[in-house]
Amino acid sequence: MEVIPLHHSCTWLPILSRGSSISRRRSYPRVSPGSIRRRNVCLASGSETLIGSRKEEGKRRKAVNERDEAEDLKSWMHKNGLPPCKVVLKERPSYDEKHSAIHYVAASEDLEVGDVAFAVPNSLVVTLKRVLGNETIAELLTTNKLSELACLALYLMYEKKQGKKSFWYPYIRELDRQRGRGQLAVESPLLWSETELAYLTGSPTKAEVQERAEGIKREYNELDTVWFMAGSLFQQYPYDIPTEAFPFEIFKQAFVAVQSCVVHLQKVSLAQRFALVPLGPPLLAYKSNCKAMLTATDDAVQLVVDRPYKAGESIAVWCGPQPNSKLLINYGFVDEDNSYDRLMVEAALNTEDPQYQDKRMVAQRNGKLSVQAFQVYVGKEKETLSDMLPYLRLGYVSDPSEMQSVISSQGPICPVSPCMESAVLDQLAQYFRSRLAGYPTTLSEDESMLADPNLNPKKRVATQLVRSEKKILHACLQVTLDFINQLPDLSVTPCPAPYAPSLR
């Protein structure tokens, strides 16, 4: 078997996942809980706390449809500056008959690569610069106090309280209709019940959902700490305190709804980088293999298509290099053709090791940390494991003289004995088997469930996610077994490793 030297065997990958940093604060309107329920203050959710009884909702929806059918979102946009475009709003049924149909943007005529599908003028785009009225304040707050998503959510929540008096009423009505649902009409797992979250058992995504929800809660709890600034930030609500105006569950629903449709614009100021664009998400489909993006021009946000479309076809945009776990949390769907899908394997040197400091120094010299995250991309499992092996071998070095050789070596720096290599690969194989055993279902059982056309949509996307994770883990296990089979002597017993690195 080829010995891979530690110092040049791999590209020392950075940690790609930033996590969900939810910043902080702010404040706003005072309203009784009863009036919150009556006025339907939030943006999105199936919660009856938000929308009232089903009977009342049915009456409200019928009345709204009768009043507003003549002016849909696109008509309102044209009236307020949207130039002629090449798209139309269409709809498909929701899986839940209690919810409105899903609207989506489709081509109104045949489109060719490079065509501008639409260009939404800046006057119809919601950014922090518009919300706060001051770019300096916007950048200060989002750097130190309040996250962009929370600020945008609160703004639309307060605008919604004005009802039809708000300029944004037609857009808010459309967001209400969409309810933050993804392509399968599924809400983000941030809004799932505990029973529904159990569909993600075994997946690290479940813990990520819980961590993100806790972050939203922390941010909500901090909103009132800057309530005295509300007069300058939200001019029409100078006195109301946000946590009195909106219960946490409603704030969370609004936050998730905004998260599902916010656009990250490039080459603009910080106060404009997060934007809510009518005709943008969630009305546009997301595809990982699409390269079309909403882009900012001097006076508009436009979409240039990257592929031909026939009239009536749904138009897609790129959702960024996000793994399926992020797509599910942010948008409520899983892309089974996602070349950016990945899992993380965290390796750590043993801090009890007498030679820990020397090993830490060697790892840092080669661009890695004492606790190192390895991103395993789908289809690139062998490359990632080849990257991990030198790091793990370093952790297995136990003889002080060998460690000194590693420190001073300018060439291949880890003398790998057959028993050490066997131990390293055996640990890897056991690790991948353990992760696979943490799921309550097997790959074949997942396939059987997904073949059922009547499978609950939330369970369907959850099953798609865990299936994609298991495929990566199975591929990693197979690569490890292949490495084991390449050992010169399979009868060699793995070396004892009192300070072996940990994997999780």
UniProtKB/TrEMBL annotation:
GO terms for cellular component: chloroplast stroma. It is an enzyme of class 2 (transferase). Pfam families: Rubis-subs-bind. Its EC number is 2.1.1.127. One of its GO terms (biological process) is methylation. Residues 351-473 form the Rubisco LSMT substrate-binding domain. Keywords: Methyltransferase, S-adenosyl-L-methionine, Transferase. InterPro entries: Rubisco_LSMT_subst-bd (IPR015353), Rubisco_LSMT_subst-bd_sf (IPR036464), SET_dom_sf (IPR046341), SETD3_SETD6_MTase (IPR050600). One of its GO terms (molecular function) is [ribulose-bisphosphate carboxylase]-lysine N-methyltransferase activity. PANTHER family: RUBISCO METHYLTRANSFERASE FAMILY PROTEIN, UNCHARACTERIZED PUTATIVE METHYLTRANSFERASE. This is Putative [Ribulose-bisphosphate carboxylase]-lysine N-methyltransferase. It comes from Rosa chinensis.
